[in-house]
# Entry
Amino acid sequence: MDRRKFLLNTALASAGTMLPLNAFSNLFFRRDFSTIRRNVGVYTERGGTIGWLINDNALVAVDSQFPNSAANCIARLKERTTRKMDYLINTHHHGDHTAGNSEFKDYTEHIVAHENVPGYQMKAAENRGQEAVDAQVTADMTFAEKWSQDVGDETVHATHYGPAHTGGDSVIYFEKANIAHMGDLVFNRAYPYIDPGAGAIIENWVKVLRTAADELPSDAIYICGHGNANYGIQASKGDVLRKADFLEELLAFTQKGIDAGQSKEEIASTPVLKGFEDFQAPGWGLTLEFSINTAYDELTTS
Ligand SMILES: [Zn+2]
# Structure
């Protein structure tokens, strides 16, 4: 077992089913600052993918990873613009998307997120102790369903489609670039983290993905919070719908086991969901067992 995998497994084991939010940050450690289309690009290093927009009259980022990698991302942004950041938008509250807010705090005018995000962020920090609580920087601008803003020659929309991966997920859509940052609504071809303690509902997650994919143009490019090393963090509408299909099959498979009188352990011992073999991402720390256990709890708790 290589060291990274060892550290990950140790972290997962010590946390039981309460997975630490930074443990699976990004197993495919690759520093990459690159443009996708029309002044919108990504920064990957550790944690959820950062999205960015740079134009003559605006600077926007989506998610903030961890303090160290956030500082590296900011350094790269400063090479390209002298402008102060207008908005940092958090797709949801998880630490590998918000811990770097502390680095962005003095660089950005505002931090924007769904209205549930600050509360979930503080609750998760409280579970980790006072030091974690003190380190939190939360959004100063929140919204319930939709927030839209002209940013230079671009328009950005943040839309909350209802509970899914958490109870506070947003899709961040750069309209003219036609690029949507999905946060952790899409773990591209990889078993997801699911956070029912912070409002996640798998059944609704399926609907959220299909609604978003339906609403956005069919040639939109999607940025995923995390991805299978073989597929990466850039995705198409087909990839988003494939994630919805996986989650739907996860619920159907688990329900079938429940109906057949199988125990949670029996159902969760299945090595792979038929038709979704490609979700077994190489080096990925999150398991199908975790997904099934979470689905089982959702289906048996009313
Ligand atoms: Zn997450």
About this structure: Residues 92, 94, 165, 184, 193 surround zinc ion (CB under 6 Å). The two ends are 40 Å apart (CA to CA). The CA atoms of residues 143 and 161 lie 12 Å apart. The longest strand covers residues 108-114.
